[in-house]
Amino acid sequence: MAKTALIIQQDLILLKVLERMILSHQYQCKAIRALDELNIEDQSENFDIIISDILFDGIAPLDYVFQIKEIIKHQTLLIITSMGQKKVRQEILNMGHVAGFFAVPFNFDKVETYLH
User: Fold this and answer.
1) How does pLDDT run across 81-99, given as a tens digit for each residue?
2) pTM higher than 0.85, yes or no?
3) In 3-state terms, what secondary structure has residue 50?
4) CA dihedral 12, 73, 93, 99 (to 10 degrees)
5) Which whole-number Å values give the CA distances from 89 to 50, 79, 84, 109, in the listed order?
6) Omega cis (within 30) before 105
7) Of 52, 84, 87, 111, which residue is the least packed, with the fewest Cβ within 10 Å?
């Protein structure tokens, strides 16, 4: 069975770059720009990996990560964001269940280690 990935990024260029990276590792991939693009079937899917930003209008980064943890089944959650504030990064990592936090620009090789 193919591994599955969900990418949530508002930045269209970053979304497409991440999607190509995921697809090159033989994952089935759904790439969206916001959570409201998920349908009921997506929410019941158990994704192997979710790669998401944390900067979305109308929701605080910590609340957003909590929502992801609660409403979408997944094995691994990676945050890739242009928000590089050390305090926010540490608070999110302290929440648990977040495998990695990468500020843009990021090292692709380090992200790819989560795809094997």
Assistant:
1) 988 788 889 999 998 889 9
2) yes
3) strand
4) -80
5) 17, 9, 7, 20
6) yes
7) 87
